[in-house]
Amino acid sequence: MAENKKKIFYAEDSDSLVKLMTYKLQNEGYDIIVFTNGEIVYESVVAEKPDLVILDLMMPIKDGLTILREIKSNPDTSNIPVIMLTTNAEEDTILKALETGASEYITKPFSTAVLLAKIKKILG
């Protein structure tokens, strides 16, 4: 019997957060693929169509807002939910991300329990 795990792409450059979130998400039964810089996130989203993307705003090579814009401007990927998970708590940035199509905007430090609840709500 084939497993039907939800696939989550997680773009984050902090090793400790990657380890924590990979553990938590896998524990909840999700298939998680990690990107430590923004270079190939968008191309991978187009190729693999994950169920959810979690983006850090400040990523090496390509920032999360640029990736969000690319995902939401492509008709093939615009319906994929994106959660911004970042230290940037500036109102302008939050509004820009939400206006661009982010499903949620969560600032670090954050509660993993709250993040998991939001993921479950988005993925059903």
Structural commentary:
The protein has about 120 residues and is of the alpha/beta class. Helix content is about 45%, strand content about 20%. It contains five helices and five strands; from the N terminus they run E-H-E-H-E-H-E-H-E-H. A five-stranded parallel sheet has the order 2-1-3-4-5, with helices on both faces. Strand 3, helix 3 (about 65-75) and strand 4 (about 80-85) form a beta-alpha-beta unit. Helix 2 packs parallel to helix 3 (about 65-75). The two termini are about 20 Å apart.
Short description:
This protein is 43% helix and 19% strand.
Question: What secondary-structure arrangement, pairings included, does this model have?
Answer:
Elements: E1 7-11, H1 15-27, E2 31-35, H2 41-48, E3 52-55, H3 64-73, E4 82-86, H4 91-100, E5 104-107, H5 112-123
Parallel strand pairs: 1-2, 1-3, 3-4, 4-5
- Shape descriptor reads globular
Give the amount of beta strand, in percent: 15-25%
Radius of gyration (Å): 13 Å
Number of helices: 5
Report the major sheet: 5 strands, parallel
Q: Please give the number of β-strands.
A: 5
Q: Roughly what is the average pLDDT, rounded to an integer?
A: 95
Q: Give the neighbour order of strands across the main sheet.
A: 2-1-3-4-5
Q: Give the % helix.
A: 40-55%
SSE pattern, N- to C-terminal: EHEHEHEHEH
In whole angstroms, how far apart are the ends? 21 Å
Structural class: alpha/beta
Uncertain segments of ≥5 residues (pLDDT<50)? none
